[in-house]
Amino acid sequence: MIKTEQILSADILNKLLLFSELTVQQAKKIILICKIINYRKNEIIFTEGDQYKGFYILLNGSVKIYKISFEGKESILHLIKPFESFGDVPLFEGGNYPVNAQVISDSELVFIPSKEFIQLIKNNSTICFNMLVGFAKKMRRLTQKVEELSTKEVTNRFARYLLDEIKKNSTENLPEPFVRMTISKKNIASYIGTITDTLSRLLKKLQSEKIIRLSGKSIFILDMNKLKSLAR
After folding, report:
1. Domains of the chain in sequence order
2. Residues facing 57 on adjacent strands
3. In sequence order, what are the residues at sequence separation of 6 or more whose Cβ sits closer than 8 angstroms to the Cβ of residue 68?
């Protein structure tokens, strides 16, 4: 059986904003309490109101964090990509899971149990302090996301989404930077605060303006300068 510490490394933990300030030795202490869990596409990880047990790190695949309104409308708050953490909000403030989490492709996750984790940082004040810096970075990013949803148009938000995905996938220096759509249009549309039909029309518009080129499930960028202008 493969041990968790053979899959995880300090370098992987340091990719997370939450753990970005930890030393190698501090990261190794956290790895010892972790558990690897595999989920199949569309499996629910937790639902809003479930008893809090711990938080997660996505190693492979994709996860959506969402809420359901009283009218039954789904709103995606975040699309988790590899080496991002989620489910950590109730860790210190208590309470149950405040959102829903579902895998949208076969995924491999790291589970960090809350009781063992709290005990670990209680006994290691430097780990706690270094994590506070990581929390601040994460909160800054979430604040930017809220600002974008409230002040920018759909075109701006989608352009920003494309630029973020290009950066995450390290394709920005290619002759035609590209984004591979590994999740459905419906999930992308919900994430940028619109509906699938609007996103489809926007894709056609950007293609007709020769800003992007669609090929299967990939979006190739033909005019990076115009895309960056739209994202402002």
Report:
1. 4-141 (2.60.120.10), 152-231 (1.10.10.10)
2. 85, 110
3. 48, 74, 75, 100
